[in-house]
Every structure is written in structure tokens, then in C-alpha cells.
Amino acid sequence: MMRYSRILALVALGAAGSTGGLVAQVVGLPVRNAGIGTGIGIAADVGFPNRVAGNGIAFGGTGAIGLGPVGFTASVASYDPKGSGEKIHSVGGTGNLKVFGGPLVPVSITLQGGLGYHSESSVEGGKVSNLHVPVGVGLTLTIPNPAFSIKPWVAPRLDLTRTKESGGSIAGSSTDTQAKFAISGGVDFGFLSGLSVRAMYDQVQRGNGIHTAVVSLGLGFRVGT
Asked: Please, are residues 162 and 173 in contact by the beta-carbon 8 Å criterion?
């Protein structure tokens, strides 16, 4: 177990050192921490952020691979905030480590870390670069059924963001780093064919009773579950 913990730590450190490395789940879609499936999987999701998050709609695709207790994902998304006139394209991925659970145990606990990146234009005409680092734990319950499985999950996390604005009409640049509590959750319905239907919800606390939230719906397919 210690060996796998060191692997996950090295992955997270490598991602933090370069925006071109491992990156986390993407703008306009929930951060997903629903356990680790074996084999290779793909999924497509559509997200609906709330008013505080910018409204609009996001489309994303994710690839995943599970290697025993270790799993990795990579995602891309395009988010069109309502009334902004500019689409935001982002890339992301996660590293996941199962610390509890097995083939005959319906409950699993998964540690997750990642790093995400996107950029957009600032009001002054410059560029805003955004780094997103979610670090948390996920609790997943698998309920077997003769025709399909039901998998509800919940995942609290620490949501770290670093925003850097440069260029534009204001000389110089500014950087803002924040740490917020966040939580995501959802339910998957998995069929024997490998197809799954999933719904997710994500909420980040912004203080003073304000929070950003995203609801999403998606389809997935996995080989080797």
C-alpha cells in the first residue's frame, strides 16, 4: 500500500510542476470521484452550472484506466457561459488510489488528487490563467442487481485554485490563490454490456452563503469491468 501511495504522490507532484502534465477534471463539469473500475473506459457528459457559476452549458469527454487499486482519468471540455460570448476550453485529469474495498466488498474508499488548467480573456483585454487542484476522498457503494448495478457516491474535497491575470490595459500582473471546501456526488447505473448512465452534482462554497454548483448527465462505456 505504501508503494501505491508513493506513486500517487509522485504523479501529483509532477502535475503541479507543469501545466502540461497530469491535470484535473474540467470547467463546467463536476469533479468525479466514484471509485476505480478495472480496464479502460470512456464517457461523455453535459453540465449545467448555476447562475453563480456562469449558467450556460458545458460538454466534456473523459477517458479512464484502472490498474488494480490505482486509476487515472484524462478529460477535455468546452464551456459556453451564458452571455459571455467566449467559450472556455479546458483540459484535466486525476490520479486515484483505492485505500479500502475489493471485488467482494460493496463499499470502497478512494483518495484523489489532480490538477486542471484553462485560460480566458480578462475584462481589460489581457489573459487570465486558471489552475485548479482538487484533493479529496470518495466513498462509493455498489448495489448489485440482476439487470444492472446502482452505484451512489459522495466525495468531499479541498478545492485549490490559482488565478493569474496578465496583460491588458492595466500594467503588470496579479495572482490570487484560494482554498475552498467542496463536495460532489452522484449515482451510476451500470449495465452488463458495459454501458452506464450517470448523474452528478458538484458544489463549491464561496462564503457568505454563496456557492457555485453544477449538475451533469452523462453516458459511459467500459471494457474490463
From this structure: no
Candidates 62, 61, 65, 70; CA nearest to 40 is 65
Rounded distance, CA 146 to CA 163, Å? 48
pLDDT tens-digit profile of 81-136? 987 778 999 999 999 999 999 888 999 999 999 999 999 887 777 889 999 999 99
**103 CB-near residues (< 8 Å, 6+ apart):** none
With cell 457503494, the residue in question is: 141
User: Quick one: CA torsion of 136, 75, 81, 87, rounded to 10 degrees?
Assistant: 140
Model confidence, pTM: 0.86
Instruction: State whether residue 165 is helix, strand or coil.
Output: strand
For residue 1, CA distances in Å to 8, 94, 105, 202 come to: 11, 19, 18, 30
Instruction: Give the pLDDT confidence of 31-55 residue by residue, as tens digits.
Output: 999 999 989 999 999 999 999 999 9
Across residues 140-152, what is the average pLDDT? 93
DSSP one-letter code for 218: E
User: Which residue type does 212 have?
Assistant: T
